[in-house]
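Page 37, top half.
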Amino acid sequence: MAGTRRTAVAVVVAALALTATACDNNAKSTGAASAAPTTVAAAQPTSAAPSATPEPTKEAPVKLTPAAYLKLVTEKTGAVKSAKVAEEILTGGATITATGTIGWSDGLQGDLSMDMSQLPVGQQMAKLTGSKTVPIRYLKDGMYLRLGGEVVEAVGGRHWLHYSYADMAAMNGATADQLKQADPVEGVRSLIASGKVAEAGQETVNGKPATHYTGQLAVDEMTAAAGSGVTDEQLQAMKKKLKTAGISSEQIDVWVDADNLVVKRTEQADTKAGPFKVTVTYSDYGTAVSATAPDQADVVEFAEIAKQAKGGAAG
């Protein structure tokens, strides 16, 4: 029985590595609504009319660069503060999916259901949780993952595993502050910072017209987009992790609708383990997010479960 418990704990630790890393059909538009334009109205002065009544000021659209327009998009999208999401993560030839709601009014908040059943560890996870989908909650202090089956017995009858942002950062090479930010314009900021974003045309997302923007970032540009609060040591650790994974560049694509909101984002790269791609679609901006922390008496900390897994390996 002890060996079974140790196996259960080890599976959870392995699954957490995947969820921490995870924590986003083109067609021409034929609808009446137009996709997001890269123009803004600018006032144009006119000559004075002969009469005492002045001519009304006329406005003409002025074309913005993709980077300048996307900066406006970040402001509009970031201000809405919540949305429904559907996420698909391609890694190692298999796909992880997640659906739910997220909010970013005060750090990351979310209530998601993740399906890892296509992965070998995910199949084992399903036996331990009693379902192929795993409920996950994101709150200001980290992620809570619902446990079940033999794992619950192994951790003293508790049903939720708490995984802090510091724990996640230590595992995947990011910083805790980065992991707390998960708004839809995260990828947009990286594109703006690179200066290499281009408009790629009009497409359809979720049945509505959208404008597609794309850009490719080298490793130095990827780490530079991490933000001013990241230390040189952390930047070097990120670069090392990317190099170890065989990643030399990343392509980021975003789609913006007629309301200047991000409706889809993809990030993809080639790795030693094969293609890696995250696709996130956003809808129902402004939706309510009801994620709440579980009862602390029903929570086990990641440090405790990792210690059990390590002890099992030593034994």
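Page 37, bottom half:
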Amino acid sequence: MNHETITLALTAEASDDGRKQWVHLMPSGTFYGKDRRGPWTLRKPEAVIEASRRFAGLNQIPIDYEHQLVNAKTNGKPAPAAGWITGMQARDNGIWALVEWTPAAAAHIANREYRYLSPAFTTTKRDPNDGGDVTKIVHAGLVNTPNFDQLTAVANAQENQDMEKQLEQLKTLLGLDATADLVAVNAKVETLLSTAANAANPDPAQFVPIGAFQQAVAEANQLRQGITKADAEAHVATHIASGHIAPFMKEWAVSLCTVNKQSFDSFVAAVGPSVVRIITPQLGDRRRSAGGSANENLTETELAVCSQMGITAEELIKARGANEGTK
């Protein structure tokens, strides 16, 4: 017997969510009590919910202990509330109620001192004990010996509710929509397990050796340290004008800057104007004999500079002459 799910709130008051619980209040279809009273039939749960709401008016529907609301007329004992019904739903298996339990009742249920719910209702017959169609629910009792065994136990309902919360949390962790069913949850878990297994046993063909990767990164970083030729020429010209390098070193300096500017700057910072003083004699009128070879016209220090810079003695002598001509 299928019904469209609806919810009718009897009141809208805030409460401690830890003491709120959906419980099975009335079975669907035709049912008997364990004492063979009945049969009763729940034909239109939506209409029963609406009639129950109207009967309660502005009040919440009470839940007592052991139907003391009825028994108080004969035994004269108090009838404290165990909880209050704040909403109802029509589901496939009957009517469910959203109950706000009192702290004492919540403790009883948690300790399994009370486990079942028994509804008190009216029917189409003058005496509800004779059966008939259910017309409205007037209250309910928290009991341990229910007459209806078709209802889900309150304690079991709490366990189911806890499981539903855990399932909602699992969906969130898996990145699934709240409407996802168990099939989708299982599929997502299997996908994650498969991914984890592949990560633990990677396919070598899909990965680059770490050594080769590190070398490629190092080479790429080295290339990124260079600058354009135009920027290199401007950078070198500044250092020539300030006397940090000699004019004849321009071509070498520009080449180095375009590949690795940082290396060139480190060279200038470490050597500075001293390289110019070494390759350019302090005595401007000093001349080499025309008959000797170029190597003979240079000092050992100057020859060492030629070797380090990768230039010939003739190039150094020519550059020195040009440098002296600018003084």
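Margin note: Residues 1-16, 155-159, 282-292 have pLDDT under 50 and may be disordered.
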